[in-house]
Write a structure and sequence with these properties.
The complex is a heterodimer of chains A (about 300) and B (about 250). Chain A is of the alpha/beta class and about 300 residues long. Chain A is built from 14 helices and 14 strands. Chain A is globular, with a radius of gyration of 22 Å. Chain B is elongated. Chain B starts with a helix and ends in a 9-residue tail after the last helix. The chains are: A alpha/beta (about 300), B mainly alpha (about 250).
Chain lengths: ~300, ~250
């Protein structure tokens, strides 16, 4: 659990973060969303004390972060940034092992951990362990960046637009990876982005910032369905928000159980947006639905999408 | 057996044999300069001159290296940032003064002998070291620094494990320039009583003995070339492995 309690920060008298209060529950995937200059990166960097704040309190698991020496605090928090910042003179293995070595882990444990993380990020440990960063693609470098952030099994993971500089296809893959890793490790993640699609896809809870203030706090669905202000509605996408809404709801929620119709079925955990796309492609207004084991459980019609 | 064919080995062999075997070339110089006697500089052995010369350079460049790199580290820390411009300017002033002028000014204060030469070489050699060390340290990518700090490296660990290894090739290039210049410049120390490979040059000029000038000049040039080549070797060796493709 991480709490920001009335935190403010000004640069030369101009407020960047303005009386910000957040309380991120343990295990949440919290996306901090907002346009550039809204103070989202600054807020993130205050949590690992890369940026000092002027007033307020930040607590991790109830402990004031200023009660801990900054280096010790940072070694407990994973940190991944858009520009990655791998150490060019160290092979992948040493890069990932940075924090475990700072913490004085024994060699064998460090080695095993590196293997484990490379496997978690779907990189072959034996072929990647000894490569240097310049021998990796941008996507591979960012995977190593994420592995390095996870290395010492931190209680909290801070990610500052980590996939902002990779191509759309790689970004898609990396988003799926980080969602999978979050589901598997249950770590608390604070993830900064200005990309609404990325936020809706990954977040369990979203904090939207506007000029250093909290504009809205809620689940992706709440944010799209009930934007708290004109700013949030415009930012979340005005006209396109109907499609976003469909993207957030599962077929299972609108299912007609027991009924059936011929055709290629869709899984119940696919989104309504997927259902709409499939109907449009196949020129039909109804589709059969199956559960995760492939058993038919019902159908969905075009009218159900807008119910 | 790559070292056998390496130019460094050949230059080293050539330099050493000339340094130790110059008196054996007496017949050559007698034949070329029949009017000059003795035809080979014999007031001191060339080896002794070289030792003294190398000692001067080592002292001056060692001090310039230590102080120059320390200054560069200081002004690239948050605490020393305000002094960056000042240090650059002072180092630049040190190099604008011609070493001959520094010698002339230093002799009344420090007397004749090796000391004024060391001071002149030190001041002259500081600029390339300071400038390169600052450039090298500032050339470490901001993202690398940010990631290192964010992961919990202390300022000392950041410097020792990340900044210095990445800056090492650029720092060393500065030291290389500085030392090579110092080897050539140290010869003028002989005008104020320091023993160097410049001694035969200035003796030869004063007494109109061309062979002395040639003997001193060739040895100084070879010494400088050899040192430069050895530094090139060291630079390749110090290049961080992950950055080899950079150049």
């Amino acid at each position: 659990m991480i709490e920001l309690d009335h935190v403010s920060k000004a640069y030369n008298g101009r407020p960047v973060v303005d009386d910000l209060s957040l309380s991120v529950p343990e295990g949440a995937f919290c996306v901090v969303l907002g346009p550039s200059g809204c103070g989202k990166s600054t807020s993130l960097r205050m949590i690992n004390r890369l940026v000092p704040f002027d007033s307020g309190v930040i607590r991790i698991a109830g402990e004031d972060i200023r009660a801990v020496p900054p280096e010790a605090l940072r070694r407990r928090i994973g940190y991944a940034i858009q520009s990655i910042g791998l150490f060019p003179h160290w092979p992948v293995e040493d890069n990932i092992a940075t924090v475990p070595r700072l913490l004085g882990w024994p060699r064998a444990r460090v080695r095993d951990r590196v293997t484990e993380l490379l496997e978690l990020l779907r990189l072959d440990p034996e072929s990647y362990r000894h490569k240097y960063p310049h021998q990796l693609s941008g996507g591979e470098q960012q995977r190593i960046g994420v592995a390095r952030a996870l290395a010492a099994d931190p209680e909290l993971l801070l990610m500052d637009e980590p996939f902002g500089a990779v191509d759309p296809i790689t970004r898609d893959v990396l988003q799926a990876e980080i969602a999978r890793i979050h589901a598997a490790t249950k770590k608390t993640v604070l993830f900064v982005t200005h990309d609404i699609e990325e936020a809706l896809r990954l977040a369990s809870v979203i904090a939207i910032l506007d000029r250093g203030r909290l504009a809205q706090w809620g689940t992706p669905l709440e944010i799209v369905e009930r934007p708290a202000s004109v700013f949030v509605r415009d930012f979340v996408g005005g006209e396109g928000s109907g499609l976003k809404l469909l993207g957030l709801r599962k077929i299972g929620e609108r299912l007609r159980p027991g009924e059936s119709t011929p055709g290629e079925p869709l899984p119940a955990d696919a989104s309504l947006r997927d259902a709409l796309a499939a109907m449009t492609e196949r020129h039909t207004d109804r589709l059969p639905v199956v559960d995760e084991s492939g058993r038919p459980i019902g159908m969905i019609t075009l009218a159900d999408l807008v119910r | 057996m790559r070292w056998v064919v390496s130019p460094v080995t050949w230059v080293a062999v050539f330099f050493t044999s000339l340094l130790l075997g110059m008196p054996q070339l007496r017949p050559v110089f007698e034949w070329g300069f029949p009017a000059v006697s003795p035809p080979v500089f014999d007031r001191d052995s060339f080896f002794a001159l070289w030792l003294a010369h190398a000692g001067l350079v080592l002292t001056a460049s060692g001090a310039a290296g230590l102080i120059g790199i320390a200054l560069a580290i200081f002004v690239t820390r948050p605490a020393g940032h305000d002094f960056r411009a000042l240090v650059s300017t002072l180092a630049a002033i040190g190099q604008t003064f011609p070493p001959a002028a520094v010698l002339a000014l230093a002799v009344p204060a420090l007397g004749f002998g090796p000391l004024p030469t060391v001071v002149a070489l030190f001041l002259y050699g500081l600029l390339p070291i300071v400038e390169n060390a600052i450039a090298g340290l500032e050339g470490v990518p901001a993202a690398t620094r940010e990631a290192a700090t964010g992961m919990g490296l202390s300022p000392l660990q950041l410097l020792r494990d990340v900044e210095l290894p990445l800056a090492a090739p650029v720092i060393l290039a500065g030291v290389r320039v500085s030392v090579t210049i110092a080897i050539g410049t140290a010869t003028i120390g002989s005008t104020v009583g320091a023993l160097t490979l410049g001694t035969p040059i200035f003796d030869g000029l004063a007494a109109n003995k061309l062979p002395f000038v040639i003997q001193g000049a060739v040895l100084v040039a070879l010494f400088a070339i050899l040192t430069d080549m050895l530094f090139a070797r060291l630079e390749r060796w110090l290049q961080p492995p992950g950055t080899l493709t950079r150049g």
